[in-house]
Amino acid sequence: MLLVLNVGSSSLKAAVLTATAAGACEHWRAEANREGSLADQLNQWLAPLLKPWQPRLQAAGHRVVHGGEQFTSATRLTASVLEQLDAVSALAPLHNPPALAAIRWLQAWQPHLPQWACFDTAFHASLPPEASTYAIPASWRQLGCRRYGFHGLNHQHVAEAVPCQRLISAHLGAGCSLAAIRDGRSIDTTMGFTPLEGLVMASRSGSVDPGLLLHLQRQGLSLDELDQGLNRQSGLLGLSELSGDWRQLRAAARAGHRGAQLAVAVFLHRLRREIGAMAASLGGVDQIALSGGIGSHDDQLLEELQTSMGWLGSVGWKRIPADEEGMIARLISRADPASDAAGG
To answer: Do 238 and 167 share a domain, yes or no?
Structure first.
Protein backbone atom coordinates (compact mmCIF):
# COMPACT_ATOMS: atom_id res chain seq x y z
CA MET A 1 0.00 0.00 0.00
CA LEU A 2 1.33 3.39 -1.04
CA LEU A 3 0.14 6.64 0.57
CA VAL A 4 0.23 9.69 -1.71
CA LEU A 5 -0.05 13.22 -0.31
CA ASN A 6 -0.67 16.14 -2.67
CA VAL A 7 -0.56 19.48 -0.87
CA GLY A 8 -1.66 22.14 -3.36
CA SER A 9 -2.02 25.89 -3.11
CA SER A 10 -5.73 25.58 -2.33
CA SER A 11 -6.32 21.89 -1.54
CA LEU A 12 -5.03 18.91 0.43
CA LYS A 13 -5.43 15.53 -1.24
CA ALA A 14 -4.56 12.08 0.05
CA ALA A 15 -4.90 8.65 -1.52
CA VAL A 16 -3.96 5.06 -0.77
CA LEU A 17 -3.05 3.05 -3.86
CA THR A 18 -1.23 0.04 -5.17
CA ALA A 19 0.64 0.57 -8.41
CA THR A 20 2.68 -0.89 -11.21
CA ALA A 21 4.72 1.01 -13.77
CA ALA A 22 1.71 1.00 -16.09
CA GLY A 23 -1.20 1.76 -13.79
CA ALA A 24 -2.50 2.38 -10.29
CA CYS A 25 -5.40 0.96 -8.33
CA GLU A 26 -6.97 3.37 -5.88
CA HIS A 27 -8.28 2.04 -2.57
CA TRP A 28 -9.10 5.23 -0.70
CA ARG A 29 -9.11 8.97 -1.36
CA ALA A 30 -9.91 12.13 0.56
CA GLU A 31 -9.71 15.82 -0.28
CA ALA A 32 -10.20 19.05 1.62
CA ASN A 33 -9.74 22.73 0.99
CA ARG A 34 -6.63 24.19 2.58
CA GLU A 35 -7.93 26.14 5.56
CA GLY A 36 -6.15 27.47 8.63
CA SER A 37 -3.01 25.82 9.94
CA LEU A 38 -1.69 22.96 7.79
CA ALA A 39 -0.35 21.20 10.89
CA ASP A 40 -3.79 21.33 12.51
CA GLN A 41 -5.43 20.03 9.34
CA LEU A 42 -2.96 17.14 9.09
CA ASN A 43 -3.36 16.22 12.75
CA GLN A 44 -7.09 16.74 13.17
CA TRP A 45 -8.46 15.84 9.72
CA LEU A 46 -5.99 13.58 7.94
CA ALA A 47 -4.45 11.50 10.73
CA PRO A 48 -7.76 10.01 11.93
CA LEU A 49 -8.70 9.12 8.35
CA LEU A 50 -5.36 7.39 7.79
CA LYS A 51 -5.34 5.44 11.05
CA PRO A 52 -7.12 2.34 9.64
CA TRP A 53 -4.56 2.20 6.81
CA GLN A 54 -1.50 2.91 8.93
CA PRO A 55 -0.42 -0.72 9.58
CA ARG A 56 -0.60 -1.58 5.87
CA LEU A 57 1.31 1.41 4.46
CA GLN A 58 4.68 0.44 2.98
CA ALA A 59 5.79 3.74 1.41
CA ALA A 60 4.63 7.29 0.81
CA GLY A 61 4.88 9.61 -2.17
CA HIS A 62 4.57 13.39 -2.30
CA ARG A 63 3.96 15.96 -4.99
CA VAL A 64 6.73 18.56 -4.77
CA VAL A 65 6.24 21.38 -7.24
CA HIS A 66 9.81 22.63 -7.72
CA GLY A 67 12.77 20.29 -7.91
CA GLY A 68 15.25 22.82 -9.27
CA GLU A 69 17.85 21.62 -11.73
CA GLN A 70 18.99 18.64 -9.69
CA PHE A 71 15.77 16.62 -9.26
CA THR A 72 14.35 15.28 -12.53
CA SER A 73 12.88 11.93 -11.44
CA ALA A 74 11.16 10.30 -8.48
CA THR A 75 13.59 10.60 -5.56
CA ARG A 76 13.83 8.78 -2.23
CA LEU A 77 13.71 11.37 0.55
CA THR A 78 16.72 11.67 2.84
CA ALA A 79 17.95 14.41 5.15
CA SER A 80 20.27 15.63 2.37
CA VAL A 81 17.46 15.71 -0.21
CA LEU A 82 15.21 17.66 2.18
CA GLU A 83 17.98 20.17 2.76
CA GLN A 84 18.36 20.69 -1.00
CA LEU A 85 14.59 21.08 -1.39
CA ASP A 86 14.49 23.68 1.37
CA ALA A 87 16.97 25.68 -0.70
CA VAL A 88 14.62 25.91 -3.70
CA SER A 89 11.41 26.52 -1.72
CA ALA A 90 11.49 30.24 -2.42
CA LEU A 91 10.93 29.47 -6.12
CA ALA A 92 7.49 27.97 -5.40
CA PRO A 93 6.35 29.77 -2.23
CA LEU A 94 2.72 28.60 -2.36
CA HIS A 95 3.62 24.95 -2.86
CA ASN A 96 7.05 23.72 -1.76
CA PRO A 97 6.95 24.88 1.90
CA PRO A 98 3.63 23.13 2.69
CA ALA A 99 4.74 19.98 0.81
CA LEU A 100 7.91 19.85 2.89
CA ALA A 101 5.86 20.46 6.03
CA ALA A 102 3.68 17.46 5.13
CA ILE A 103 6.78 15.32 4.56
CA ARG A 104 8.16 16.22 7.99
CA TRP A 105 4.74 15.68 9.58
CA LEU A 106 4.61 12.17 8.11
CA GLN A 107 8.14 11.48 9.32
CA ALA A 108 6.95 12.21 12.86
CA TRP A 109 3.65 10.34 12.44
CA GLN A 110 5.24 7.19 10.98
CA PRO A 111 9.05 7.49 11.31
CA HIS A 112 10.02 4.27 9.55
CA LEU A 113 7.88 4.75 6.44
CA PRO A 114 10.03 5.22 3.29
CA GLN A 115 9.10 8.47 1.54
CA TRP A 116 9.53 9.60 -2.07
CA ALA A 117 9.17 12.95 -3.81
CA CYS A 118 7.88 13.38 -7.36
CA PHE A 119 8.39 16.76 -9.01
CA ASP A 120 6.17 18.89 -11.22
CA THR A 121 9.30 20.27 -12.88
CA ALA A 122 10.66 16.81 -13.81
CA PHE A 123 8.46 16.21 -16.88
CA HIS A 124 9.75 19.44 -18.40
CA ALA A 125 13.42 18.43 -18.09
CA SER A 126 13.12 17.49 -21.78
CA LEU A 127 12.60 21.14 -22.85
CA PRO A 128 15.14 22.03 -25.56
CA PRO A 129 17.53 24.92 -24.83
CA GLU A 130 15.62 27.32 -27.07
CA ALA A 131 12.48 26.76 -24.96
CA SER A 132 14.10 26.69 -21.52
CA THR A 133 16.54 29.60 -21.87
CA TYR A 134 15.69 33.19 -20.99
CA ALA A 135 17.35 36.02 -22.95
CA ILE A 136 19.09 37.40 -19.86
CA PRO A 137 22.76 37.97 -18.96
CA ALA A 138 24.92 34.86 -18.82
CA SER A 139 25.79 35.55 -15.19
CA TRP A 140 22.09 35.31 -14.32
CA ARG A 141 21.64 32.11 -16.31
CA GLN A 142 24.56 30.59 -14.41
CA LEU A 143 22.54 31.08 -11.21
CA GLY A 144 19.95 28.62 -12.54
CA CYS A 145 17.59 31.28 -13.88
CA ARG A 146 15.76 29.39 -16.64
CA ARG A 147 12.34 28.06 -17.56
CA TYR A 148 11.47 24.98 -15.50
CA GLY A 149 7.75 24.50 -16.13
CA PHE A 150 5.23 23.06 -13.69
CA HIS A 151 2.12 20.85 -13.43
CA GLY A 152 4.39 18.21 -14.93
CA LEU A 153 2.83 15.31 -13.03
CA ASN A 154 -0.59 15.96 -14.53
CA HIS A 155 0.79 16.91 -17.95
CA GLN A 156 2.60 13.55 -17.98
CA HIS A 157 -0.60 11.78 -16.93
CA VAL A 158 -2.46 13.49 -19.79
CA ALA A 159 0.32 12.58 -22.25
CA GLU A 160 0.05 8.92 -21.26
CA ALA A 161 -3.77 9.04 -21.44
CA VAL A 162 -3.78 10.69 -24.90
CA PRO A 163 -0.82 9.26 -26.83
CA CYS A 164 -0.29 11.16 -30.07
CA GLN A 165 2.43 12.97 -31.96
CA ARG A 166 1.37 16.58 -31.23
CA LEU A 167 -0.59 17.21 -28.03
CA ILE A 168 -1.44 20.37 -26.10
CA SER A 169 -2.19 19.56 -22.47
CA ALA A 170 -4.16 22.30 -20.69
CA HIS A 171 -4.08 22.10 -16.89
CA LEU A 172 -6.73 24.61 -15.80
CA GLY A 173 -7.55 24.99 -12.11
CA ALA A 174 -6.44 27.28 -9.30
CA GLY A 175 -3.11 27.15 -11.12
CA CYS A 176 -3.07 27.03 -14.92
CA SER A 177 -0.50 26.01 -17.50
CA LEU A 178 -0.19 24.54 -20.97
CA ALA A 179 2.37 22.04 -22.22
CA ALA A 180 3.30 21.33 -25.83
CA ILE A 181 4.01 17.58 -25.94
CA ARG A 182 5.58 15.81 -28.90
CA ASP A 183 5.56 12.01 -28.81
CA GLY A 184 5.10 12.03 -25.03
CA ARG A 185 7.86 14.55 -24.27
CA SER A 186 7.41 18.16 -23.17
CA ILE A 187 8.97 20.59 -25.66
CA ASP A 188 7.39 23.86 -24.47
CA THR A 189 5.25 25.15 -21.62
CA THR A 190 3.73 28.39 -20.34
CA MET A 191 5.04 28.43 -16.75
CA GLY A 192 8.67 29.41 -16.26
CA PHE A 193 11.23 29.91 -13.49
CA THR A 194 8.36 29.90 -10.98
CA PRO A 195 4.64 29.00 -11.22
CA LEU A 196 3.81 32.70 -11.76
CA GLU A 197 4.44 32.91 -15.50
CA GLY A 198 1.93 32.24 -18.27
CA LEU A 199 -1.84 31.99 -17.99
CA VAL A 200 -4.17 33.91 -15.69
CA MET A 201 -4.84 31.87 -12.53
CA ALA A 202 -7.09 32.06 -9.47
CA SER A 203 -4.94 34.51 -7.52
CA ARG A 204 -1.69 34.51 -9.53
CA SER A 205 -1.11 37.10 -12.22
CA GLY A 206 0.44 35.02 -14.97
CA SER A 207 2.81 36.89 -17.29
CA VAL A 208 3.23 40.62 -16.81
CA ASP A 209 5.77 43.07 -18.24
CA PRO A 210 8.89 42.94 -15.99
CA GLY A 211 9.13 46.70 -16.49
CA LEU A 212 5.79 47.10 -14.71
CA LEU A 213 7.29 45.42 -11.62
CA LEU A 214 10.36 47.65 -11.78
CA HIS A 215 8.04 50.67 -12.00
CA LEU A 216 6.05 49.55 -8.95
CA GLN A 217 9.23 48.97 -6.98
CA ARG A 218 10.45 52.46 -7.84
CA GLN A 219 7.07 53.74 -6.62
CA GLY A 220 7.87 52.30 -3.22
CA LEU A 221 6.35 48.81 -3.17
CA SER A 222 8.50 46.35 -1.22
CA LEU A 223 9.52 42.92 -2.48
CA ASP A 224 7.10 41.34 0.01
CA GLU A 225 4.26 43.52 -1.27
CA LEU A 226 5.06 42.57 -4.86
CA ASP A 227 5.22 38.87 -3.90
CA GLN A 228 1.90 39.03 -2.05
CA GLY A 229 0.21 40.98 -4.83
CA LEU A 230 1.39 38.75 -7.67
CA ASN A 231 0.77 35.42 -5.92
CA ARG A 232 -2.31 36.05 -3.79
CA GLN A 233 -4.15 39.19 -4.96
CA SER A 234 -3.96 38.99 -8.76
CA GLY A 235 -5.41 36.68 -11.41
CA LEU A 236 -9.15 36.11 -11.44
CA LEU A 237 -9.43 37.52 -7.93
CA GLY A 238 -7.62 40.74 -8.80
CA LEU A 239 -9.49 41.22 -12.07
CA SER A 240 -12.96 40.61 -10.68
CA GLU A 241 -12.45 42.09 -7.19
CA LEU A 242 -14.93 39.39 -6.24
CA SER A 243 -13.45 35.88 -6.19
CA GLY A 244 -10.82 33.60 -7.64
CA ASP A 245 -13.35 30.76 -7.96
CA TRP A 246 -14.12 30.09 -11.64
CA ARG A 247 -17.63 28.74 -11.02
CA GLN A 248 -18.60 31.75 -8.94
CA LEU A 249 -17.24 34.10 -11.60
CA ARG A 250 -19.13 32.33 -14.39
CA ALA A 251 -22.38 32.77 -12.46
CA ALA A 252 -21.61 36.38 -11.57
CA ALA A 253 -20.67 37.21 -15.17
CA ARG A 254 -24.02 35.83 -16.39
CA ALA A 255 -25.74 38.01 -13.77
CA GLY A 256 -24.02 41.11 -15.15
CA HIS A 257 -21.14 41.62 -12.70
CA ARG A 258 -18.65 43.69 -14.71
CA GLY A 259 -15.58 42.60 -12.75
CA ALA A 260 -16.48 38.94 -13.25
CA GLN A 261 -17.07 39.55 -16.96
CA LEU A 262 -13.65 41.17 -17.27
CA ALA A 263 -11.97 38.29 -15.41
CA VAL A 264 -13.57 35.67 -17.66
CA ALA A 265 -12.70 37.63 -20.81
CA VAL A 266 -9.06 38.14 -19.86
CA PHE A 267 -8.71 34.48 -18.83
CA LEU A 268 -10.11 33.27 -22.15
CA HIS A 269 -8.06 35.72 -24.21
CA ARG A 270 -4.80 34.64 -22.58
CA LEU A 271 -5.76 30.96 -22.87
CA ARG A 272 -6.51 31.24 -26.61
CA ARG A 273 -3.29 33.16 -27.20
CA GLU A 274 -1.13 30.62 -25.40
CA ILE A 275 -2.82 27.66 -27.12
CA GLY A 276 -1.78 29.33 -30.38
CA ALA A 277 1.79 29.65 -29.10
CA MET A 278 1.95 25.97 -28.13
CA ALA A 279 0.54 25.03 -31.55
CA ALA A 280 3.35 27.05 -33.17
CA SER A 281 5.97 25.23 -31.08
CA LEU A 282 4.54 21.87 -32.17
CA GLY A 283 4.10 22.85 -35.81
CA GLY A 284 0.42 21.91 -35.63
CA VAL A 285 -1.84 20.02 -33.23
CA ASP A 286 -3.44 16.58 -33.26
CA GLN A 287 -5.17 16.67 -29.86
CA ILE A 288 -5.94 19.26 -27.18
CA ALA A 289 -6.74 17.84 -23.74
CA LEU A 290 -8.38 19.95 -21.02
CA SER A 291 -7.70 18.89 -17.44
CA GLY A 292 -7.84 20.30 -13.91
CA GLY A 293 -10.84 21.55 -11.97
CA ILE A 294 -11.85 24.05 -14.67
CA GLY A 295 -10.71 22.17 -17.73
CA SER A 296 -12.41 18.87 -17.06
CA HIS A 297 -15.72 20.24 -15.70
CA ASP A 298 -16.71 23.40 -17.62
CA ASP A 299 -18.82 22.38 -20.65
CA GLN A 300 -19.12 26.00 -21.77
CA LEU A 301 -15.34 26.42 -21.87
CA LEU A 302 -14.93 23.45 -24.17
CA GLU A 303 -17.59 24.82 -26.53
CA GLU A 304 -16.04 28.31 -26.50
CA LEU A 305 -12.59 26.98 -27.33
CA GLN A 306 -13.79 24.65 -30.07
CA THR A 307 -15.62 27.55 -31.70
CA SER A 308 -12.90 30.17 -31.35
CA MET A 309 -9.98 27.87 -32.16
CA GLY A 310 -11.49 26.37 -35.31
CA TRP A 311 -8.66 27.92 -37.33
CA LEU A 312 -6.36 25.20 -35.96
CA GLY A 313 -8.01 22.79 -38.38
CA SER A 314 -8.82 19.16 -37.66
CA VAL A 315 -8.05 18.85 -33.96
CA GLY A 316 -9.43 16.35 -31.46
CA TRP A 317 -10.64 17.80 -28.16
CA LYS A 318 -10.71 15.73 -24.98
CA ARG A 319 -11.32 16.25 -21.28
CA ILE A 320 -9.09 14.21 -18.99
CA PRO A 321 -9.63 14.15 -15.21
CA ALA A 322 -6.45 15.08 -13.39
CA ASP A 323 -4.69 12.22 -11.61
CA GLU A 324 -1.49 13.48 -10.03
CA GLU A 325 -1.79 10.90 -7.26
CA GLY A 326 -1.95 7.98 -9.68
CA MET A 327 0.96 9.41 -11.67
CA ILE A 328 3.04 9.71 -8.50
CA ALA A 329 2.34 6.07 -7.65
CA ARG A 330 3.34 4.95 -11.16
CA LEU A 331 6.54 7.02 -11.09
CA ILE A 332 7.58 5.55 -7.75
CA SER A 333 6.92 2.08 -9.12
CA ARG A 334 9.10 2.82 -12.15
CA ALA A 335 11.87 4.20 -9.93
CA ASP A 336 11.77 1.24 -7.54
CA PRO A 337 10.11 -1.70 -9.34
CA ALA A 338 11.22 -4.17 -6.67
CA SER A 339 9.37 -2.29 -3.94
CA ASP A 340 6.40 -3.98 -2.30
CA ALA A 341 4.69 -0.56 -2.42
CA ALA A 342 4.76 -0.83 -6.19
CA GLY A 343 2.37 -3.72 -6.07
CA GLY A 344 5.00 -6.47 -6.28
So the answer is: yes
